[in-house]
Amino acid sequence: EPRSTCCCLAWTLLIVTMNILVFCMNLLLLFVIFTIVLLPTIVVVYFGFQCHSKVLHSAARYCRSFLDDSSSSALIILGFVIMSPLIVAAMAIYCSLARRFHLLMCFQPYSRAVYKGVKWRWYEEGGLCRCGRGWNTQVKAWV
């Protein structure tokens, strides 16, 4: 049966808040994975730009003794070249974690707010944490 207007608005607010929290958790996980995987690229490009005379030209000892302009340019180019496969690897890691932990299944449709007695999606599928249980491999995250 349909909910009353005030109850529907309250449930809609709850579902919107929950979906925003799930989105923020997914975004945080994505940020952490990309930061960890792309750390070598970040470091190489940083040192390349820091020691190049046309960009920052740091007075640090390692810039004067080890890195000249040509080696700094090589570091910058190397950093941007290795960025592409690392981005692909980071996205593959995120997608495998999202699929393993069913992160995209935590989003709830707004029809839960309109009608009484409709169970939550995670409750219908065996609980929020499905770790260690037999999973249905046919269930897709976008269903």
From TrEMBL:
Gene Ontology cellular component list: plasma membrane
Location(s) in or outside the cell: Membrane
A GO MF term: PDZ domain binding
Domain of life: Eukaryota
Membrane topology, from the record: Multi-pass membrane protein
Major localization class: membrane
Keywords: Membrane, Transmembrane, Transmembrane helix
Transmembrane segments: 20-49, 74-95
UniProt keyword annotation of Flavoprotein present: no
PANTHER family according to UniProt: TRANSMEMBRANE PROTEIN 88-RELATED, TRANSMEMBRANE PROTEIN 88B
Similarity comment text for this entry: Belongs to the TMEM88 family.
Annotated protein name in UniProt: TMM88 protein
Organism for this UniProt entry: Tricholaema leucomelas (pied barbet)
